[in-house]
Amino acid sequence: MIDHMGIAVSNIERSRTFYEAALGALGMSVQMEATPEQTESGGTALGFGVPGEKIFWIADEERPGEGTHVAFRADTRAQVDAFHARGLEAGGRDNGTPGLRPHYGPNYYAAFVYDPDGANIEAVCYAAE
């Protein structure tokens, strides 16, 4: 079970705009902001989640890494569709339009968007409809 995870971003404000839009479609928002004075490495960090939970962090104190992939669970296929649309509207790049991916499972409905730094961000729903 994952408690929380984080990725490095090159521009915290640009990435904040992207993630607020894309993750907002999944019911997530910024739950905590740590200033450079509050972090170990001197950068800004934003914790996304739902009230009481900060499961996904972005921070600008390290260099973004290639090959980063994060998949967020969606409750409905409509949320996956909204994640993709809002992610693109907020500056992301398409990496796979919403749809079934039967090679991953019979009800694996997902969409993929590259964030502003090229991380592959996914929303997936396992519901039959």
TrEMBL record:
Pfam families: Glyoxalase (PF00903)
Occurrences of domain VOC (ranges): 1-126
Source taxon at top rank: Bacteria
PANTHER family recorded: GLYOXALASE FAMILY PROTEIN (AFU_ORTHOLOGUE AFUA_5G14830)
This protein's name: VOC family protein
Organism encoding this protein: Sphingomonas lutea
Organism placement in taxonomy: Bacteria, Pseudomonadati, Pseudomonadota, Alphaproteobacteria, Sphingomonadales
